[in-house]
Amino acid sequence: MKKIFTLLVAGLVGTAAATAQKAMEHSRFFDNWSIGLVGGGITPTTHSAFWGNMRPTYGLEITKQITPGFGLAVQGTMAHNITDSRLAVDAHNISLLGKVNLFNLFGGYSGEPRVFEMEAVVGAGWAREYYKASVQRDYNFFTTKYGVNFNFNVGEKKAWTISVKPSIVYNMQADRADSYIAYDVNKSAIELMAGVTYLIRVLPLTLIR
CA–CA separation, 78 vs 91, rounded Å? Predict the structure, then answer.
């Protein structure tokens, strides 16, 4: 099942990347950016109560929409009370995310966003857990993220997007003593966040077929 899912994601990203390469000839760097706030909760995927062990997380997300079907985003989040560090911020995660708008990719683009859209999200990032120096050293690790964004575009010009963003985040370095990279569901967490985004549409996007 994991192999099928990985191949499906790779196919979607590959198709979107090919489309993006063609479209970049028609889009300037400063066109079609968005900025948003995200917030919600994060909880271990296994061996814990889903709601009882959920802890707050929030952050900022900046997206460059390259084509109606594909965008790139940088997302930074912070989390609280996920370790026994007793610090104000326990951890952060900074990710580079690829976003594939499934409705535009497979249903075409009419020139403006739909009221409701779905995005497949996949990416990788760098995370760090913070500890008091008297307890242990801070812990850095590589992460991957897979998720879906449920987007509701609102306003007269649909310049605002309200989103629900469920995802799973993997700690790829499952054992601190080893440097191998692996997927381990026992070293992963579920993120359930919502977001509000403001879209800056300087240039109308065109879907290159």
Answer: 6
